[in-house]
Amino acid sequence: MSYNSKYHTFVRMQMNDKMIKRELEDLIHEKLFQGKAIIIYGPRQVGKSTLLDMLKPGLGKKWLSLNCDNNDIKKQLTDPAINNIRRLIGENELVLIDEAQRIINIGLTLKLIVDQLPGVQLIVTGSSSLDLSNIVNEPLTGRKFEYQLFPLSMKELVDHFGFIEVNRNLEQHLVFGTYPDVINNPGNEPEILNNLVSSYLFKDIFMYQDIRKPEFIEQLLEAIALQITSEVSFNELAQMLRTDAHTVQRYISLLEKAFIIFRLRSYSRNVRNELKKSRKIYFYDTGVRNAIVGNYAPLSSRTDAGMLWENFFIAERMKYLHYTKSYARRFFWRTTQQQEVDYLEEYNGQLKAFEIKWNPNKKVKFPLTFTRNYPEASTFSVNRDNFWDMIGV
To answer: CA neighbours within 13 Å on the CB side: how many for 119?
Structure first.
C-alpha cells in the first residue's frame, strides 16, 4: 500500500486539535431527560468510552461515571438494593455506565434506576448485546432508547477532515476500514488491525459463552470473509469446517451480537423462483475483514475489490440509515436462475434497489424479472464517484 504522507500529517494535526464528532452525539442530546435509559451498543474499540467523555461537557449537570471493568463497581451494581443505588449515585443527575454487559442482572439494575430515580439520566454502553451473557433477566421494554455506534462513518470523516482529503484516500479506507484507532494512527494500520482482531473483538464471546474451540471462530470468520457478497450456506460452511449446521448458526449469531458481522436476508414477494431463505453475511468494517484474511494489498492489485466495495457501501448505508433514524429493512434479491440485485431497502411501502459497482464506467442493468415484478421500485446505480449523496455527504 502506498501511503499519502501529506494526508497522514493532516490527520495527525487534525486529531491533535480536536476529536472527531460522532453523529450519535446529537441524537443522544435530543433524548436526554425523557425518563428513559439511553443504551449505546457497539464493538470494542469503536469509541463508546470516548463518546461518553464527549457528552459530559456542556450539559450543566452533575455526572457520575462508572466503568464496569472495575470490580468495586461490579459489586455495587450487581443485584442492588435501591438504598445502595441512591448512596452510589448521590446528587448526580447524569450517570454514565461503561461496559454494562459485565454486570450480572444488569437489566434489573437499570430498571430499578429508571423506575425509582426518575430525575437521573442513565447512559449505558455495551460492547456486545446485553443478552450475549444470558444473564439479563429483566427487560427494559418501554424504558430505553437504543443506538448503535459504528466504526467512523464517511460523513464523520468528511465533516472533520474535509471532502477532498477523504475522497482522495477512499481506497485506503476500503482496505484499512475506519476504526478510530486506525484513523488516529496512520502508517500503523496493519499492526493495529491485527491486534484488534487477535485481542479485542472476541473478548465478550469468550468471556460469556462456552467456547470449547476458540480457533473455530477464526476459521469460520475466514470462510465468511472469503465469500462476502455471495450467498452463505450454513450446511456448506459446516462441511468445510467439519461440524454441523446448528453449530455454525450458533457461532454466527454470537458474532452478530458482538457486532463483527451482520446478515442480509433475501427479498421475496412476487416471483415464484425467488430465493426465499438465503442470506449474505457482511462485516461492519472492511479493515477487520481484510485483517482476518491477511490481505492489505491496494485495490489496484486485488481480485476482491468489487466485493470490498459492496461490503463497504452497504455498511456505510447502514450507518446513514441508523443515524438518520430511517428504519428501512435491508435485503438482497436473487432468483434460482442467478438473476440478482445487490442490495434492497424497504420502508413505508417504498422499495429501493441498488446495484453496486466500483468502476463508474461499468454499465449497470437491472434484471427484467425484477423491474417487471417490482415496477414501483426506485433503482440506483452506485459507484465510487456518486455514492456520497447516498450516505448523507
So the answer is: 9
| Rounded CA separation 195/205 (Å) | 17
The kind and range of the H/E element at 310 are helix 305-323
Sheet containing strand 94-98, edge to edge, reads 63-67, 94-98, 121-126, 37-41, 144-148
Under DSSP, the state recorded for 161 is: H
pLDDT digit string (tens) for the chain, length 393 residues = 444 544 554 444 444 456 899 999 999 999 999 999 999 988 889 999 899 888 877 677 899 999 988 888 888 888 778 898 999 999 999 999 988 888 877 888 888 999 999 999 999 998 776 555 544 545 678 889 999 999 999 999 999 999 999 999 999 999 999 999 999 999 999 999 999 998 878 777 776 666 666 788 889 999 999 999 998 888 899 999 999 999 899 889 888 988 899 999 999 886 666 666 789 999 999 999 999 999 999 999 999 999 999 999 999 999 999 999 999 999 999 988 889 999 999 999 899 999 999 999 999 999 999 999 999 999 999 999 999 999 999
The x, y and z cell numbers of residue 169, run together, are 484516500
Q: Provide the b/e sequence for 125-158 (b: ≥16 CB within 10 Å).
A: bbbbbbebbeebeeebeebbbebbbbbbbbbbbb
CB neighbour list of residue 103: distance below 8 Å, 6 or more residues apart = 68, 74, 77, 78, 109
Please, what are the domains in the chain? 23-148 (3.40.50.300), 157-391 (no CATH)
